[in-house]
C-alpha cells in the first residue's frame, strides 16, 4: 500500500492565497468643539499620529470675526481603521490638547465621540439636507421682504394720492371730512385689487384707516 504523500509547500501557499482577506472597515469620530486656531491641516497633523486618516470635515463658524480664534464649531474625522478610531475617541476624550505652550489651544480639552455604524455618506446626506433647508429658509425670507417692501411702496403711493386729493379739496374751500367718499373708495379699491393681483393675502388697510380718521 502506497504511503500518503505530504502536501507540497506550493499547494499550501495556493490555498492560503485564495482565502479572502477580511476588509478593514473605516471609522468616524465626532468633535463637538474645535480648539481655537485649529484648521483641517492642524487637525490632520495631530490625529495622523495615531493612524491613517481619510476624510476630514470641519464646519465653519458663521460668527467668526477677525478677533475670533474659533474658526470652526464641530468636525468629523475618518480613520481608515475603525479600531483606531474607537481607541482615539476613548483615550483622548476630555483630555488636554497640549502641544507647545505658545499655542492658543494648549489648555483646551478634546470632546470626542466615536460614531457607531456611521459612514461618510451619512454626513454628506446630512450636510446636503442642511443646505437645502437653509436655502429654502433664505428664499422664504427674501420673498417675505419683497412682499413687505411692495406693500410699503403701495402704502406710500396711496398716501400720496390721498394727500393730493386732500390738497385739492382744501383748495376748493372744503373740509377734508367733506371729501367725496366715492373718490376715496376708488383709491382704496384700486390698491386692494393691485395687492390681490401681486399677493394672495388681503391688503392691510391700517394706514388708510389712520388717514381717514385724520382731518
Automatic annotation (TrEMBL):
<protein>
    <recommendedName>
        <fullName>Activator of basal transcription 1</fullName>
    </recommendedName>
</protein>
<dbReference type="InterPro" id="IPR034353">
    <property type="entry name" value="ABT1/ESF2_RRM"/>
</dbReference>
<dbReference type="Pfam" id="PF00076">
    <property type="entry name" value="RRM_1"/>
</dbReference>
<dbReference type="InterPro" id="IPR035979">
    <property type="entry name" value="RBD_domain_sf"/>
</dbReference>
<dbReference type="GO" id="GO:0034462">
    <property type="term" value="P:small-subunit processome assembly"/>
</dbReference>
<feature type="domain" description="RRM">
    <location>
        <begin position="27"/>
        <end position="101"/>
    </location>
</feature>
<dbReference type="InterPro" id="IPR039119">
    <property type="entry name" value="ABT1/Esf2"/>
</dbReference>
<dbReference type="GO" id="GO:0005730">
    <property type="term" value="C:nucleolus"/>
</dbReference>
<dbReference type="InterPro" id="IPR012677">
    <property type="entry name" value="Nucleotide-bd_a/b_plait_sf"/>
</dbReference>
<dbReference type="GO" id="GO:0000480">
    <property type="term" value="P:endonucleolytic cleavage in 5'-ETS of tricistronic rRNA transcript (SSU-rRNA, 5.8S rRNA, LSU-rRNA)"/>
</dbReference>
<dbReference type="GO" id="GO:0003723">
    <property type="term" value="F:RNA binding"/>
</dbReference>
<dbReference type="GO" id="GO:0000447">
    <property type="term" value="P:endonucleolytic cleavage in ITS1 to separate SSU-rRNA from 5.8S rRNA and LSU-rRNA from tricistronic rRNA transcript (SSU-rRNA, 5.8S rRNA, LSU-rRNA)"/>
</dbReference>
<comment type="similarity">
    <text>Belongs to the ESF2/ABP1 family.</text>
</comment>
<dbReference type="InterPro" id="IPR000504">
    <property type="entry name" value="RRM_dom"/>
</dbReference>
<keyword id="KW-0694">RNA-binding</keyword>
<keyword id="KW-0539">Nucleus</keyword>
<dbReference type="GO" id="GO:0000472">
    <property type="term" value="P:endonucleolytic cleavage to generate mature 5'-end of SSU-rRNA from (SSU-rRNA, 5.8S rRNA, LSU-rRNA)"/>
</dbReference>
